[in-house]
Amino acid sequence: MFHLRPTAELAERVLLPGDPGRALALAQKLIVEPRMFNHHRGLWGYSGAARLDGEPLTIQATGMGGPSAAIVLSELIELGARCAIRVGSCGALHPDLALGELVIARESICHDGASRALGFEERIPADPALTAALTRGAPDAHAGPVVSVDLFYDDARPDRTTGALAVEMESATLFAVGARAGIPIACVLAVSDTFDREGARTRIDDDALLTAAEAMGAAAVEAFSWFSA
């Protein structure tokens, strides 16, 4: 592999946060005695037995944006990953979403370049069976479409007319890579940003984001357990 250089065994089931720091925090919370799986290029990853069910679990950061996520997931699949769940953050588009709440992406609207380069022009669904298991793991989460974009700082970001609950940067690409490889991919997100009618951003604080991240990580591991049962 060019970008991932494993230093521990890869599990067949993988959580995919974007942030390397979140990968570390989730590994400390969800894995018994986590071992570093990758540190090359600052893309931290960890492997070990999940506290929930004792089964192997890898948590691997993808970095920011679709191109980086595509590289990481493609190499994980080449190494033996067989299902994955993105555990990331998002900006709320629906007015009912509050900071820290969870959103399950049933599909992603392709406003990014990477998913379109992979052959998906409009929308791409998450894997339905893995998403159903994720909904069971996070029954209070909002579920529906999200929209994937390339730019974080963008005054022209998608508005509520898209029908998307939230906006983020990686899910469309991950769904596309998974679909091309025949690997089930799902996605759960924590609302990290809200916007008022004038577009002013309110950002979640670090402690609240960590709490939300731990909740979605736990829900994702439960989903893996039900999905493989």
Briefly summarize what is shown.
The protein has 229 residues and is an alpha/beta fold.
Q: Layout of SSEs?
A:
Blueprint: E1 13-16, H1 20-30, E2 31-38, E3 45-50, E4 56-60, H2 66-79, E5 83-92, E6 102-110, H3 113-117, E7 123-125, H4 128-137, E8 142-148, E9 166-168, H5 171-181, E10 185-195, E11 201-203, H6 206-228
Parallel strand pairs: 1-4, 1-5, 5-10, 6-8, 8-9
Antiparallel strand pairs: 2-3, 3-4, 5-9, 6-7, 6-10, 10-11
Helix pairs in contact: 1-6, 2-5, 4-6
Q: Could you characterize what this model shows?
A:
- By secondary structure, this protein is of the alpha/beta class.
- The protein has a single domain (13-228), classed as 3-Layer(aba) Sandwich (Rossmann fold), CATH 3.40.50.1580.
- Helices cover 32% and strands 30% of the residues.
- The protein is built from six helices and eleven strands.
- The chain has a five-stranded mixed β-barrel.
- The longest helix is centred in the last third of the chain and has 23 residues, at 206-228.
- The two termini are 31 Å apart.
